[in-house]
Amino acid sequence: MMKAFQNAIPIIMKGVPTLDVEVMDVLKLDELNFNLTGLVFTLRDGRLKGSKDIIVDNIEWDTKKLQAVINYHVNYCELWGSYTASGKILLLPIYGHGDLNIQFRKLYVKVTLYYDVYKKNGKSFARVKRYTNDFDVRESIRYNMTNLFNGNNELGTALLNVMNDNWEQVCKEFGKPLMDSVSKKILKNVNKFLSHSPLEEITLTYI
Question: Which superkingdom does the taxonomy of this entry point to (predicted)?
């Protein structure tokens, strides 16, 4: 199954128009809005690059519990878009609206999928009902945001320096909504793929 998943990733990430699976590298994200620990944040026109380079580390597939645990990582991925932010981050004030760029190095992800199986035309198909995810960035994250504090370069540079020096804490406090948004979009397309791919044929096709 690991070999099948690994071989399928670059194909699926390119998009499969005949299966209504959209291109996922570069992945277009839905608008993201959250309010966490005093930070009100919006990301529009988000784009994520690097998904095609996912490396599958381990898969645990329990056909009795109808659940699969997938561990994977990507050595480098990049997110960009337009942001609006106000409130506090790391106890420091932040406000502004402009362009956002985030670079991740050594991003490790664990996704647990809960699915059901149904029959169609005598074949078995899987459908993901819900999921949980956990992630860990093991090397670095680099944040860049334009027009912080309405273009005050001195304040903006000072804040970005603090964020980049404390990237682990920033990610711990505010990274989950972003990862949830990415996972939701990817799994939406995975379900489209699964709806046209009998379980009996997946390993035969991609091994």
Answer: Eukaryota
The pLDDT score that the predictor gives to residue 1 is 73
Beta-sheet strands, E only, within the chain: 27-28, 32-36, 39-49, 55-62, 67-89, 92-120, 123-145
Name the residue with tokens 């597939």. 61
The residues spanned by each domain of the chain are 1-36+53-205
pTM given for the model: 0.89
- Tell me if 78 sits within 8 A of 101, measured CB to CB: yes
Domain covering 1-36+53-205, topology: Bactericidal permeability-increasing protein; domain 1 (3.15.10)
Segment 3-61, tens digit of pLDDT: 888 888 888 899 988 888 899 999 999 999 999 888 999 999 999 999 999 999 999 98
Strands 55-62 and 32-36: unpaired
> What φ, ψ does residue 164 adopt, rounded to 5°?
-75, -30
Distances (CA, A) of 83 to 24, 102, 160: 21, 12, 14
Using only the alpha carbons of the chain, give its radius of gyration. 19
Cα–Cα nearest to 91, from 157, 177, 166, 175:
166
Instruction: Pick the closest to residue 194 from 68, 102, 98 (CA basis).
Output: 68
Give the Cα separation of 191 and 131 in Å (integer): 12
